[in-house]
Structure formats: structure tokens, C-alpha cells
Sequence to fold (371 residues):
Amino acid sequence: MQKDFHYYATYCAAHLAGFTHEECMEICYSAQLVDLCSATLLRKIKAPEEAATTQLQLELMDTKPDIAGLQNITRIWASFHFLPSDLYASRNGAPKIYLDKYRLICNTNSDLLVETVKLAKDKGAPAVGLAMHVLADTWAHRYFAGTPSLVINNTDHYFYELVPDADGFSERPVKFIHAPSAKDDPVNGIYVNTIRQNSEKSVMNLGHGRAGHLPDYSYARYKYLPAWGDYEEIVKDNPSDYMNAFCQMIYALRYLHGDEPSFEKNRYDTEAVLPWKDRIKEILEKRQTDACDDWKKLGKDISGNDIEDFDIGKYQPEYLEAADKDNTFLGRFTAAAVEQKSMVTYHICKSGSKLAGVSVVKKSRERGGKK
Fold:
């Protein structure tokens, strides 16, 4: 997903869940910050690099494809963008080296999602926004994994976009190009993706890079044949998935606001959406690669307040000047990021996989050590 959903749509969901305008602004800021909090940014503000929630392209390209480098990639991308669905999934005859990656495939309504949302309870807006980013991405990024893998994340020539027409939908082959400076062209079905690399360890095979930004566009409907699914056709309906993501965010946010006794899988707040459902559906299905303006207008209509533009430097002076950095906005965000990463890494390691390394924080807690 992109800023349109992580920032503006998250604001809308938070307001519908009962948060004040000021709280909504902090929640959606944190949700968007997950896509920007790189090690480079953390070094700039002298914050702990272990709190990185994303990696810049240059950082990825500079990462060595050794054990340490690949574990760091997996810790970040599996924890915040491609939350694993079933760490104990089995496949007959599959070797462990394959199973470890197969089990990292992202999907919705997992036990890890429940733990992610509960982890944010009573931790403040930065933790809430971070959890909403993870939740939303499970819908956009489902069927891809947050670790480099050609066998899991690759796409081939059988990749079709389902374009609405008078009779329903028409199938159109997607033309992928490898020009980083080019823009996606939804009118003609031309999208930018990563260059195929035969190495399992290549960062070009991370996440949905081989499918370009199609998973991030709410209007996109497409089908393809993943190798991990025995080349059986998978159809992705983003407008439907994004609506589910929005409704599930409202339910999760109501739980975090204190209005729901628990957070459970497969529950969605469809009632709060009803007055705005047609408007939201129109935004989700509009063939555009950036829906920020539409979501921003909707947010103002819902709350009666203007949503300020995202400013990456908004909270940096507070953090840099604070004697007690832990009680700043960025201090609480980095703490939530470290805890989320530790939790996911712990569960991946517990499943028998070393792809994300070992969770030091989780182990120290179990031994009675300090956080």
C-alpha cells in the first residue's frame, strides 16, 4: 500500500473508530512513517538502527547477500510489510529450506496479526499507527513473502489485469518493464517491476517486486500463477481486499480505543462504513496510481477537519532536543517498532527457521531479563 491508504485512509478509519482529530493525525502519521523509517533516517536523528521498519533502495543494494544481511532484510520486511500467515504450514515432500520460505508467505487474519494488534494496546498512538500499517499490508501484500525468494515471489508471462468494461471485466496481459525512472501506465497496462534474477538471495526477488506496484493500487484486479501454489491461478481483487482492510482497521482501532473487549480474526466493522461506503468504493475502484487527494477530501468530510500533509521532519526536533527521548513521539514509535520486530522474529525462530535470526528481546523477557 501507499501513502493514500496508510496516511489518509488510516486517518478516516481512526476517526470512524472514535479517536479525536489530534489522535487520528498521530495514528496516521505513525502508519505512514513505517514506510520511511530506514536505518539512514535513524542515523540522522541518532536513534537506534534496530528500529528500522523499511529499507531504502540504496540500502538494499548495499546489503551483502550473506546470512546477516538476509536475516536483517527478513526481520524488517516480514515484521512490518509481509506478516507471515502460517509459520507451521506443511507441504508433502518439501525440504526444510523451501518450507522456511513458504511459511513466510503473507496472508490476512493470522495469529501474528492478532498478536500485532494486541501488542499495540495501551502503548499510545505511535504503536497504534504502526499496527495499522501491518494490518493493512496483509491485504495488499498477501501471497508474497518478506524475504528474497525467486521460487516464492517470482511472476512469469501469465499475468493478466482484469479491466472493467461494459460486460464486466476484460483480461489484458500486463506488460512489465524494468525502468526505475519510468511511471506506471494503467491506461495501457504497462507497469514497472524488478529485473528477474535467478539467485534466490537477490533483493530483486523480495516481496512483490516482481509484480511491480500492482499490489499497492486499490483499483487493481489481476491474476497470475505462482510457483509456490503449484501454478494454480490466483485472482487478486484489490478493491474488495482494500475495503476489507479498511473495515478491519476500524474494528481493530475500536479495540485499541477501548470500545471492543477483544480483537479477533475475521471481524470487520461494516456498520461504521455504511454512510460512506459508496464514496469509499468509488475511491478504491478509480483507476489512479495516487488516491491521496480523494482520501484527504473524504477525511475532511468525515471529521470536519483539514488533514495536514505528511512531513517527515515533523517530530524530529522534539526527539533531537529531548533529554528523555523515550517519551517523545519518535521515541515511542521506535520502541513499538523494536517490540513488533522482536515479536515476529521470535515466532519465526520458534518455528524452526533462522531466516530472521534470533529475537534477543523476547528471549531476555522469558528469562526474566530487562526489556
